[in-house]
Amino acid sequence: MARREQVTGPGSRALIVDIVRSAGPISRVELAEATGLTQPAVSGIVRRLIADGVVRETGELVSTGGKPRALLEINSHAVYGVGVQLGYEVITCIVADTTGGVVGRQSAPGGYGPADEVTARIAELYRDTLEGLELGNATIAGLAVVAPGAIDLAAGTFLGPPAPEPLHGFPLRRELETRLGVPVLVENDAAAAAVGEFWSRQISRDEVFAVIYLGSGLGAGLVLDGALYRGSSSNATELGHVSIDPRGPVCSCGNVGCLERYASSAAVLDAARAHPHLAEALAGRDEVDAFDRLSRAAVEGDREASQVIEAAAARLADGALTLANLLDLDRIVLAGPGFAIAGSVWARIVQERLDARSFARALHATRVELASDPRDSAAIGAAALVLQGSVAPGHDRGAR
After folding, report:
1. Most Cβ neighbours (<10 Å): which of 66, 97, 296, 314?
2. Percent of the chain, pLDDT > 70?
3. What is the DSSP string of 176-240?
4. Phi-psi sector, 181: left (phi>0), alpha (psi -120 to 50), beta
């Protein structure tokens, strides 16, 4: 029998929080059994979590002859996280409670523009949202700002497209911390969405799962053992830049035949405009509006719109199959505004591909699901990132 763990630290706290979050209400005895920690170690961690207001006792189990066992659950009002998602037309601000539940949402025009103006808009939106909820900075764990593309996590900057060009290399984290007086994190939107799904869906840390994110680009995020997998430079799981066609077109990243050139919203709209009646319907519309209109047409039975969406979904399924085979995934969640209307079509095609061709299909299925709120999934995930870092430190060694 393995020796039970007696040493506690940030990782042990994170483990306890994850299990209470995903399995609670739960007793201390059950926590010891689930974690392998000793009873004294569990009691010490729980005592500190209760003192910090993160966990609370919520009743008692029926006694089986001994002392009744108190049950533990996450205190949803312990602290709040704020997530901001930068989109081409709008900036979306989400406030989430400690369980990941959304308690407030507000948006403002213009996620792209001169860096100083975007920074000012974010700060104003942050203040307005908190004022509307009657929350002060003392209750806020922090703010995370997310956008597509590569990031420099340590510097707190966005590095390249499709993030807004004026923000490339701009010290956004430093500027916002100076203006707002709260900790700030800059993160990739797909990576944030993965943490958001893990946190708000009460997914067990035993699952290996990924989010595929369809927005202005195409990305993915991966959660292993309850932690976001970052890679060497915090730019892991760039599914959109996996080559699926060695003779395909050159991508902006320098690779050729990238999945993003076939299944991103821009690529899908290019394919749609090859059909005259679709080109007419989409003329003069921005990318988000045009993609929504195309998706709605597909759902409502337009034959050519359906063909375009289904062809892109089949390409995405190629990428999802590669991801599942590389990582032996339990679950894939489809998130992002691109899945907001026709997400069921994409999910069906990806699921069929995995069921038919996944390498480990004889041992287990890889479930394909839609995010509960595809449009806001990155903003919700941004809020979840700061919550996880605040109440369950030890998940993310890459973040400061």
Report:
1. 97
2. 94
3. HHHHH-S-EEEEEHHHHHHHHHHHHTT--TT--EEEEEESSSEEEEEEETTEE--TTTT----GG
4. left
Q: Is 274 helix (H, G, I), strand (E, B) or coil?
A: coil
Q: How many CB atoms lie within 10 A of CB 359?
A: 12
Q: What share of the chain is helix, strand, coil (3-state, %, to 5)?
A: 45, 20, 35
Tokens of 320: 């999802």
Model confidence band, residue 62 (pLDDT cutoffs 50, 70, 90): low
Task: Write out the two tokens for 34.
Answer: 């689930």
* Residue 179 CB partners (closer than 8 Å, separation 6+): 119, 123
What local confidence, expressed as pLDDT, does residue 164 receive? 78
**Residue 246: Cβ within 10 Å count:** 8
Q: Is the pLDDT of residue 348 over 70?
A: yes
Structure tokens at 44: 């010490």
Question: Can you list the alpha helix ranges (DSSP code H) found in 228-302?
Answer: 260-263, 265-272, 276-282, 287-299
Residue type present at position 267: A
Cβ neighbours, 10 Å, residue 10? 12
Query: Quick one: angle between helices 10-23 and 39-51, nearest 10?
Result: 80
List C-alpha distances in Å: 39 to 17, 21, 35, 42, 358. 16, 19, 10, 5, 41
Torsion of CA 299, 304, 305, 309, to 10 degrees: 100
Distance from C-alpha of 213 to C-alpha of 210, rounded to nearest angstrom: 10
Is the CB of residue 181 less than 8 Å from the CB of residue 137? yes
Mean per-residue pLDDT for 140-168? 90
What is the C-alpha separation between 26 and 200, in angstroms, rounded? 18
The arithmetic mean of pLDDT across residues 333-348, rounded, is: 97
Mean pLDDT, range 123-128, rounded to an integer: 97
